[in-house]
Amino acid sequence: MRLRAALEGYAHLARPLTRFCALAAVLLLPLTSLPLLSRLMGGTMVAPPSLVFVALGLAFYLPTVWLGGERWPGEIVPLAAFAGAALLSSLLSFFSADLPFYKGINPPREVLSALLTLLVGCACFLFFAVALRDPAEYRPLLALINMGGVLIVAWCLFQLYYIYLHGSEFFPPAVLAVHRVLSLGSLLEFLRMKRVAGFAFEPSWLAHQLNMLYLPYWLGASLAGYSAWRFRLGRLSVENVLLAAGILLSYASLSRIGYLTLLLVLAFLVWRVSGALAGRLGGGRRPALVRAGMLASFAALAALGVYLLSRLDARVAAIFTLTYGGGNFFYLANQLTLAERLAYWGLGWNVFTAFPWLGVGLGNTGFYFESHLPQFGWALNEFQKIYLENTFLVNPKNLWLRLLAETGVVGFALFVSWLSILFASAQTLQRRGEALWRALGWMGMLGVIALLGEGFSVDSFALPYTWTTFGLVVSASFLARRQAAEETVRKD
């Protein structure tokens, strides 16, 4: 009896502690690389403090699962299958005679490090997928996502002021010192490049966190008419205002993949909205003309956005000044400052074609740098410097090619299947009547679409934004299904 009472007491204590960790984790999401945490983790660039609270939250929560026998969402299963395939591929690499020797780097250490980052990402997804067990718990959590967004917007507007109005050379030293405490990134360097970075390590990471978490929620909430904050500016919710500011900041980060991802998300949204509008108009040619007109208008606005971006970013401006003197595709890529990125992608693709089924194991692509880097890559200064001076492993810098190279067709198929299931769950959730569920359903669908674009730039499993978005959507879908089942039982 005493043991049972002690276990029940622990369960009552663990629940509020778990909720506190969830709230603290989302509030700290704007920080991607806290220097203190980075030093404690051995100097890694990816050091978001929110993951500390994710780990604590899981430590508090998991014993209650074993004690109470709680059910988990079924969307966890395909991710677990992918993690199993990645683990199998990584373990088999220890017995591979084909793994090259590269600068004395220890393969088991690299594999263990890569597996750890996958574990961190999966733990983040699992935590947010299971930590929320009551619809009332979403409002304070989403409100803190808004608060984090307000902090990002305020910090970025401060940076924009010094970029375009005051002059970045006069940036206050005290503010730079504060930024150094909060981020490993060099704020002054990015200001001189006229790029905002927020609290992130670099501007492309700011675009990533906006595109993968904040913008999907703000856009989903705006579409569903939901707000975590009851305060409104007239008819505008806080999410409406933050959505407009977030799009501006994603643009001001001058991240090319970030901009393309934003266009992809908006194109998907225009497609859905135009389809719904065409469906209401009935048959005939008019619905098709309306849909075509909306898509053409969006394409024109997207082209205008590219032109305006070219006025700020010399890399984009090169699109409008290309000279083709009989060179090949990689000559053009070099003019657009894309050659290095294409070489990284080529490395990943070449490794995949050599080991197509299970790949070479997580973290091992860089061992094939000498033998599988595309030939044009050796003409680039970046790769000559890497080969002659650096002692670290490179990676494909592309999530999709990394999955193919390191987990093969099997791992890639399992990961894509998981995303497809997430999209289907989010789509079902978006059709529910409650504004909260519809907002989170939109958030999930837009998050999956955004990952299609962001995956071409970010390949780290340790950044928490994708996992947080998908975890929240899965937990909401699970609760909505349980809620629907309970309503059916009551009716019967």
Structure commentary:
The chain is globular and about 70 Å long. The chain has one domain (2-254, 312-321, 396-491). It contains 20 helices and two strands. The protein has a two-stranded antiparallel ribbon with strand order 1-2. It has 492 residues and is mainly alpha-helical. The mean pLDDT is 89. Strand 1 (232-233) and strand 2 form a beta hairpin.
What's the layout of helices and strands?
Blueprint: H1 2-27, H2 35-40, H3 50-68, H4 76-93, H5 107-130, H6 138-166, H7 173-182, H8 187-192, H9 203-224, E1 232-233, E2 236-237, H10 238-252, H11 256-280, H12 286-310, H13 314-317, H14 329-335, H15 339-354, H16 369-372, H17 381-389, H18 399-430, H19 435-454, H20 465-491
Antiparallel strand pairs: 1-2
Outline: globular
> What is the string of SSEs from the N terminus onward?
HHHHHHHHHEEHHHHHHHHHHH
The rounded distance between the terminal residues' Cα atoms is 38 Å
The overall average pLDDT, rounded, is 89
Integer-rounded radius of gyration? 24 Å
Given as residue ranges, the uncertain stretches (5+ residues, pLDDT < 50) are: none
Question: What percent of residues adopt helix (DSSP H or I)?
Answer: 55-70%
Overall structural domain count: 1
Q: Give the total of beta strands.
A: 2
Structural class: mainly alpha
Going across the biggest sheet, name each strand in turn: 1-2
How many helices does DSSP assign? 20
Strand content: under 5%
Sheet of most strands: 2 strands, antiparallel
